[in-house]
Amino acid sequence: MFRNIPTITKNLLLINIIVFLAVIVFQSQIDLKSWGTLHFFMAPDFHIYQLLTYQFLHADVWHIFFNMFALWMFGCVIERVWGPQRFLVYYLVCGIGAGLCQELVQYIEYSQSGLAELGVSALIPVRTDSGIIEMTVGSYLNSWGTIGASGAVYGILLAFGMTFPNERIFIFPLPVPIKAKWFVGIYAAIELFMAYGASGDSVAHVAHLGGMLFGLLLILYWRHRPGSKFNMGSGRQYFENMKRNFESRRQTKNQNQTDTRQAGFGPTREDDMEYNARKQQRQAEVDAILDKIRKSGYDSLSKEEKQRLFEASRER
């Protein structure tokens, strides 16, 4: 399966996984996460390259799992439609745009907090999990960090919804398929609501929206640019291949079940309700034979009843 993933999507998956493992393995030698995290641009630890590096760092296993799952699920399709070069440009633009939006929000918070009037060495009280401690302004600003590929992934989500708006997809925990355009709209609305209403949840909701915003602007630019063509056939072919593979696996599974049952390891292939009804009927017959034994003894059974009772004992 991995060899069927397009080049850029495959390499992005590998880089993110390798970086995640490297952070764990080398955490005692070098703090890769602190080095690559996108810090607030007024913080002492900020560097311009962090607009790129922060996209390949993740907080924990679940953070990287959901991002990489979405990248694989939607990135494979979009890369086949756009081609590897354009897909890579789009991915990086969405990720950088998400970081810039997060920096803007942090700057607004910085301006409104009064920190701009203090020097980086000034001490301020900061509330932490262990209580209120004193910290320099510089150290406090360094704690405003952003990591994760979510901004770029949300951009890919938008691209999928705009490219295949009426394609129905299953998304947990929804019990029914939903059109891609509604799925993207719902996610955008949730992020917008969370950006305004969920403070202190450690999730960069504005960065998610920023990735979608920059993705939208880039898509609109490409659509109005002469000569910009997308290989829609390749994307649809990918869907068709997925459906054929699923159908092939389902047919193979059904055939294996049929062969197993015909070999004597299970009931013949039939409707579940029909099979359950026949099973209950056989049980009723056995119960009637047992009642006859209790009333009149074993010798009262006919040859057929004795044979049926013997077969039932073997089935058990």
What is the number of E strands? 6
Please report the number of helical segments.
12
The major beta sheet can be summarized as: 2 strands, antiparallel
The quaternary organization reads as single chain
Gross morphology is elongated
Helix and strand content put the structural class at mainly alpha
Strand content: 5-15%
What is the first-to-last residue Cα distance? 42 Å
Low-pLDDT residue spans: 266-270
Helix content: 55-70%
Order of helices and strands: HHEHHHEEHEHEEHHHHH
Strand order in space, largest sheet: 1-4
Mean pLDDT: 81
How would you describe this protein?
The chain is mainly α. 66% of the residues lie in helices and 6% in strands. The protein contains 12 helices and 6 strands. The protein has helices at residues 7-25, 32-36, 50-53, 61-82, 84-113, 137-142, 150-163, 180-197, 205-223, 232-265, 272-296, 303-315; strands spanning 38-39, 123-128, 131-136, 145-146, 168-169, 178-179. The strands form 3 sheets. Strands 1-4 form a two-stranded antiparallel sheet. The chain has a two-stranded antiparallel ribbon with strand order 2-3. Strand 5 (168-169) and strand 6 (178-179) form a beta hairpin. Helix 7 packs across helix 9. It is elongated and about 105 Å long. The protein starts with 6 loop residues before the first helix and ends with a helix. Residues 266-270 have low confidence and may be disordered.
